[in-house]
Amino acid sequence: MTPQSNLHQQVTGWQISIPGEKQYKKDAFNNIWLTSSQTEPYQQMLIMAQGIVEINTDNQLGLQDALAPAVFLQPTTATLCNDEMIAFAEYYLPQKSWSNFQKLAEALLQYMPYITASTTVTHTAIASFSAQQGVCQDHSHVLIAMAKVMGIPARYVSGYLYVNNQSHLASHAWAEVYLEGRWHMIDVSNQLFSPQSHVYVAVGRDYWDVAPVRGIREKGGSETMYSIVQVLAC
């Protein structure tokens, strides 16, 4: 939930309000994690994050960092390919060029159009591709799976996207592929191939590396989580 400043964005005045004892740390992908321990009984917990992010619209590449690209060749359960996906990737990537990856992204959106609430976070790339529909998470997982099976490092990015001065009711996700010594952004859902009004929050191998909220509790009954995300122009 905590974006960091980089070539694409400058973060100012970011604050997170959460009950309990708090501790900040960084994970293996250099993402900022905030952990909180709540020891007293409670009926509800409110977590609020807010701040200002200034976007550098001149940046045409993805997020460049010191992480070894080979890390993002590792297979995960969410980013595996079946035979149909391999054939799809081979057709659109006869050469592993940037222009062919853009063609692959266009073909993916046509094959599996964006349909709100058509999948859940438990859907794998194989399940989403087979369903021929999905949301930004599914598009990212499928493209990452296809890139990796072709030997190209690819990673999952979570964040936010501002469009047309309207609030967004959900977080956004996109992919990045490593070509010619640089990370290149591929937002399959919006057919964007360079950062626009994207806010980078975290990177990982798949959704589960960058899930915005997760927790462990002892005892108690059932629970539900409700979230609102607003991205507004300053």
UniProtKB/TrEMBL annotation:
SMART domains: TGc. Residues 128-190 form the Transglutaminase-like domain. InterPro entries: Papain-like_cys_pep_sf, Transglutaminase-like. This is Transglutaminase-like domain-containing protein. It comes from Acinetobacter bereziniae (Acinetobacter genomosp. 10).
